[in-house]
Amino acid sequence: MNVADSDMLAQALFAKGYYSASTSSDADLIVVNTCSVRERAEIRAKARIKEYVNHRRKSHAAQEIWVIGCMAQRLGQSLRNEIPGIDRVIGAKDIVPFAQEMDGVLLAGASDTGGEKFPGKLNAFVPIMRGCNNVCSYCVVPLVRGEEQSIPAISIENTVRSLVDTGLKEVTLLGQNVNSYHDGSTDLAGLLEKIQAIPGLARIRFTTSHPKDCTDALLQTIGRYPKLCKHIHLPVQSGSTRILEKMNRKYTRETYLQRIDAIRRILPNADITTDVMTGFPTESDEDFSDTVSLFKQVHFTAAFMFAYSKRDGTVAAALNDDVPVDVKKERLARLIDLQTAITKDHYSSMVGKDLEVLFLERQRGGEKLWTGQDNGCKRSVLSCNENIAGMILRVRALHSSGMTLITERI
Q1: What is the architecture of the domain spanning 354-409?
Q2: Does domain 2-105 sit in CATH 3.40.50.12160?
Q3: 3-class SS at 271?
Q4: Pick the CATH number of 123-348 from 3.40.50.920, 3.60.40.10, 3.40.50.1010, 3.80.30.20
Q5: How far apart are CA 244 and CA 252, in angstroms?
Q6: What's the whole-model pTM score?
């Protein structure tokens, strides 16, 4: 979502005569987009902002520094007191209206782009909804992004069509709880049917799904259309029903596993990925063992794994954060080791098989090496002298480097 917001603001600035600087030192305007999901994200953002402020002071550069996004929403103008030198703070709830009506705050002397269009991308993130109504006890998103609001389907269609006109091949539809999307009678399944009908678009992804809204009808729609990638990102957060209840996740271990069974039944070759945290308040060794056993049972293709960190203003912040930091980290390390082995098994099982891979860019440091993804979420590399950006090619997996498939064209 932050990438999508950054792209939207960049496009609005481009339309007003701005263009991307090669380095931060060359910029007239520096915009730092921030996240508040974890404490570490805020620490890194503040450190980067301080670097920019200090450089501007030492170099006497004529720059403005804007801070936008979730941390800006959470801390508000107090951020300017904490880091003197920030010129503007724009919260996550205000980014869209600000991008639409920012003429009065722009710097003078913007360059003339000569009527050029904003550079097109082969893949892009497109928000289809903003905010969240779930109020998971650990999550700051409802506080910084507000209540759930679905964007009209016709607006989303028009956005995707305009992106396809600039060369887009793959779109990822975004929402904090993307599968709760509703615009009148159009749910996510209906929206996917509309988007897949757009000529020139090769692939469609969406994230992030909530298990309680992962319906059979949605899975059947995904199975019906080749453009819809066979990849379901389904955050579990914990394998313990007791902890899930404290998290206010609105499902149990058993009902989550029922959704996994439905995915395996309807989309037998789908990649399933997840989010999980260790060390949520009161998490016992038994609770953590439930998470480990769930990972062994589901066999996720990949997972985003984190240790719990308290976020001010959330329900969980009032709980006693009683799991020692070293225990959180030790449990996280064990889970990472387990999932790494499972992911390597997934990739090894693909060796010798044929895949259809959408190649999007050259690998850094290799002029001939191209990277892409299959119709799930597995990363592939192909050595090729041609420019294959935006092409879906049939390739064969020769071997696995662990978390990347090395392929040849067939």
Answers
A1: Beta Barrel (2.40)
A2: yes
A3: strand
A4: 3.80.30.20
A5: 7
A6: 0.90
Residue 88, judged by CB atoms within 10 A of its CB (0-12, 13-18, 19+), counts as: middle
> Which helix or strand (DSSP H or E) is residue 172 part of?
strand 170-174
In this structure, the strands spanning 149-150 and 129-130 are antiparallel
CA–chain centroid gap for 258, Å, is 25
Parse the chain into domains and list their residue ranges: 2-105, 123-348, 354-409
First CA to last CA distance, the chain: 36
The H or E element spanning position 395 is: strand 391-400
Name residue, tokens 């779109």. 171
SS3 155: helix
Q: Which amino acid is at 44?
A: R
DSSP assignment string, 221-263: HHHH-TTB-SEEE---B-S-HHHHHHHT-S--HHHHHHHHHHH
Mean pLDDT by 10 residues, the chain (410 residues): 90 87 92 92 96 95 93 94 95 88 69 59 95 94 92 97 96 96 97 98 97 97 98 98 98 98 98 98 98 98 96 94 97 98 97 97 84 97 94 98 95
Task: Quote the DSSP letter at residue 410.
Answer: -
- Judged by DSSP in three states, 75 sits in helix
> Distances from the Cα of 409 to the Cαs of 182, 349, 366, 388, 395, in angstroms?
41, 19, 17, 12, 4
Residue that is written with structure tokens 């003197």 in the block? 84
- The C-alpha atoms of residue 264 and residue 213 are separated, in whole angstroms, by 16
- 101's CB contacts (< 8 A; 6+ apart) are none
Residue 107 CA: distances (Å) to CA of 26, 83, 270, 350, 381 = 15, 21, 49, 53, 43
Site of tokens 């439930």: 290
Q: Give, in degrees to the nearest 5, the angle at Cα 400 between 231 and 402.
A: 80
State the Cα–Cα distance between residues 180 and 206, nearest whole angstrom: 12
3-state SS, 7-41, equals: HHHHHHHHHCCCCCCCCHHHCCEEEEEECCCCHHH
Q: Are 37 and 70 contacting, i.e. CB atoms less than 8 angstroms apart?
A: yes
